[in-house]
Structures are given as structure tokens and as C-alpha cells.
């Protein structure tokens, strides 16, 4: 069953056009000019209950606006959305009790108090029974390993610890839908992995519906099978994560190990040399030239080992968006 | 409707009320704990706030020095001292330090979002938060207040009788509500203009004059007759004048009703502004 249904959602903003110079500023006081910017354009998708979907796109692509629309913080210019049968921007309590939004910013916790005080408040805000509260809190603090930090003021916690507390605050009422906007931004590798592992475990156990935006492809790869790629407000891909590579990557990576402990000259003709560490070399080759390159290399050199791999998702996404930028610059 | 379904319904309604009360209580408790985190700073700022009253008393004793028996617009020296002491007490109820700027700040930095995402009512939340703020303040300020009143006991009026005392207490509590509602309203204006600090400054200046904080309103109303029709007078003057017997006992019910009317009006305006503000906020980007 669909948990989230979005149909042709559009959101435009009027942005004040600020011209340079003092005179222009003075004129701006009397006559303001606005540009209309489309943050989200005709976005449609459906997410089933229990799915965990990644929302990918460069900065300003419309990911956060879409999450704000689905959390009811923003009203759309046109289009419809239903989350768990509710229209988010009506902000009914019945809906607000069933979802959570977690962003990388400090959001839900009282800064000067230990996190447990904020949790206790959440218990009343979301009307969690005492038994459920106790059980969930124990479970979440165990999973996120923050038991010993419960009585420390939030402002004294590290960023990673605070993020884990934010997650607890967001999950205590056991939401059916969770929106995660860059949940690991600014975290060190260890904290990132801990949050990832927790999210994976929790989502599988509770079968909640999750939309995740992240710049860290490691997060995305670890957590999601499906990705919606959005750029300039338009959905450009909606399907399996792996298909992004098939669809958008124009290159593969060939790794060669030569028998005579050297890397021969002239390999540039096959593609870009990514790394050359004799006797090994990694070359980025255009997809359609892979077989030609392999047969040529094998016939001309003595090779100990050979492998062909896909490019990392991160690189493919980066290339996808930067080529888009380049195209925009050309236009 | 069957008897059992009616009973079930009233039980749910009762459960709903209980859940709401529990939430208010917990906001209050949590906010008290939060206030106590900075108790030293809080205690210091509380004590510093007693300095103006000392200068006021010196100022008026200098004014009355030449003719100790004279009266200015119906105030003799003793009444003037009592006036400022009671205004200080009333301001302890009606002043809301940091409320408007706090709301504006949360709108500007986006932390207001939590009130929109969570099933809570922002204005209710802020209200209980402010009660906590006040309770902690009274806990710290009662001692110094008692000391100042004791030192000036010679000037204080006699007990005016329970009806007047009761009217004073009602007016005092309502002054808290009016102060809260006006400052919240100013804070909510940040939904339209992100920066409200100059507005807060203007409000503070105006309310200093027009509430009777600076001088009794009798001295102003000759030149500014409209002060009697503004809500500011309830922030300092009205409760004080009630206790000093400046408002005839027969007028007290009407006076209190008008004050309650202002509260109702401001409350409606607050809700309206909040709803419009949130609409605007969500239309402009959240």
C-alpha cells in the first residue's frame, strides 16, 4: 500500500532581485523586482509502506523543499500529496503524530537541558503511554549507545551524540513515516556509520517508510535500494539505485596488473589514468570502448590480473550533476 | 445516543483534557528546570532591576522636599513612593523580557519549525514557558521585594479591604496576560518582517510612558487623553491605581471588565496573526 503519493507537485518562489550598487538599493525601496524560481516542478512519485527511498540531487535541486512539502511546512503552488492519507500542509494533529522530520540542524532538543527532559516532553506531546515510552527509550538508547549521556545537557554533547539524541526524539512516538534530511552531515566517519547501522536496523525492524536525502553516497548505498534523483526541481530518475550507474555512468574502470612490474607507456589512449602504481594501473574507459580496450591490452601486454568494475555511485552522481551544470553553463 | 457511548465519549473528552493538562504541566516543569540552569545570571539581573526604584524614590523626595505636604495631581510624597513600588510589582508581572525577540529569533533561524511539525500549539507552549520564567523570577525576587517594601513601609497605604485587594490581584494577573499577548503579537510580526528589534524598542519606549511606568498617568492624561483608551495602562497603572484607591470602588468592575475585554481582543488578534503568519511562512519557504 502506498504511504506517500505525490502527484505533479509544483512549488515556485518569488525571489527579490537585488541589483548591485547603492542607487539600485535605494530604488529597490520603492520598486521591487522579483524573479520566479521553481524549486519543485511537476514532481510525482509513490512510495510504498515500509520502503526506504533515497532522494538525490545537488544543492538547490528541490530535495529539501519536497521534504518540507511532505512535512507540511510549505504549501505547494500546485499539485497534490498524500502521506498516510493526510494532506501534509493541513497540519492535522492526526498526521503530525505519525511522522517525524530529522534534519542536520538542532531541532527538537532543549539546548540547556539533558536530552531525557526533552524526551519526557515528547512523551506528553505525542501521548506515549508510560510503558511504551520506557520500552522504546531503553531500546533506542541501547541501539544508539547513548545511555550514559542521557543526563548531560545537550549543549555539552558532540555533534554525533546530539544527532543520535535527535533521532531518539524523532522516533519515540514510533512514526510511520520518517523524513531524514542530511542526517549525517558534519559527522565523523564513526558516527556516520553508527547512524547508518542504526537506521538500517531500525527500518527493518519497524518497517517504517523513510525518505532520506544525503550527500554521502555511502549513506545511500548502505540504506536504500531505490533512489529518486531530482535536479532543478524535476525527477530525472526513479528506480533501483544500481540502475543509476547503468543509466548515467558513461564509464567503467579497468584495473590491470602487468607481469613485468612496470606500467607500459601509452595507456592514455584508452581513457583517463586514475591511478598508476606499478605494476598496477586503473583506467577509466568509456563504456562502449571497454571490449576494444581489453582485447588491445591483452594482445599487446603480458597481464597477471584484470578486472572491470563500475564506477563508484558517488562519482557517477557527481558527474551527472556537474555535466548538468556544464550543460546549463553552455546554455 | 446510548448511555454507554455517551459515557465513552465523555471519558475520551476527559482523557483529552487530562493529556493536555499533563503536557502544560510538563512544559512548565521543563521550562523551570531550564531557567534554573542560569540561576546565577538570573539572580544578578533580578537584583540589578531593583536599582531604578531607588533612584525614583530619591528623585521624588527631591521634588517634594520644598513642600512636604503638597500633592501633585492628587499624589502626596507617600503615595508617590507607594505608586512606584506598586508599579515595580506590577511590572514584575507584565514585563516579558526576551519574549518578542525570542519569537522573532525562532522565526528567523527556522527553529519555529518544530512547533509546526510537532502536534503542539506554539502560543500555548510559549505561555507555559513564560509562566515558568515568572515563577523562577518570583522565587528569586521575593526576598528583595519584601526588603524594599519593608524599608518603605511608612509610605505604604493601609490595607484597603478585601474587595479592593481582590480587584488588585485580578488586575495584576490580567496585566501578566496583557503583557504576554502584546509581546507575543510583536514577536509574531517577524513572520512578515524578519527583524523586529526596532519595533520592540519602540514598544518599550511607548509602554514606559503610556503604561504609567515613568510617571502616574494622571500627570499625562491632561496632554495625552487617549492613554486611557490604550491597553498599555493595564501594564502598570491600573493595578497600582486600584490598590492606591485612585479608581473609585464603584468603577472597579467596569475597569476589570475592560481589562478582560482587552485580553479577549488581544488573544483573538494573536491567534489570527499566528495563523496568517504560518500561512505566509509556509508560502514563502518554511
Give the topology.
The complex is a heterodimer of chains A (about 325) and B (about 290).
Chain A: E1 2-16, H1 22-30, E2 34-48, E3 52-56, H2 63-71, E4 78-83, H3 93-96, E5 99-103, H4 115-125, H5 130-144, H6 159-171, E6 177-181, H7 189-206, E7 209-213, H8 217-223, E8 226-231, E9 234-240, H9 241-248, E10 251-258, E11 271-277, E12 280-286, H10 290-300, E13 303-310, H11 313-330
Parallel strand pairs in A: 3-7, 3-8, 5-6, 6-7
Antiparallel strand pairs in A: 1-2, 1-4, 8-9, 10-12, 10-13, 11-12
Helix pairs in contact in A: 5-6, 9-11
Chain B: H1 3-37, H2 39-48, H3 51-64, H4 77-94, H5 99-109, H6 113-117, H7 122-151, H8 162-188, H9 197-210, H10 217-220, H11 237-243, H12 252-284
Helix pairs in contact in B: 1-7, 2-7, 3-4, 4-7, 4-8, 4-11, 5-8, 8-11, 8-12
Broad shape of chain B: globular
Helix count of chain A equals 11
Strand tally of chain B, please? 0
Domain unit count of chain B = 1
How many domains make up the 3D coordinates of chain A?
2
Element string of chain A (H = helix, E = strand): EHEEHEHEHHHEHEHEEHEEEHEH
Helix content of chain A: 25-40%
Q: Low-confidence segments of chain B, ≥5 residues, pLDDT <50?
A: none
Largest sheet of chain B: none
Order of the strands making up the biggest sheet of chain A: 5-6-7-3-8-9
User: How far apart are the first and last residues' alpha carbons of chain B, in Å?
Assistant: 44 Å
Beta-strand residue fraction of chain B: under 5%
Superfamily (CATH H level) name of the largest domain in chain A: P-loop containing nucleotide triphosphate hydrolases
Envelope shape of chain A: globular
Structural class of chain A: alpha/beta
Number of strands of chain A: 13
Q: Termini of chain A, distance in Å?
A: 42 Å
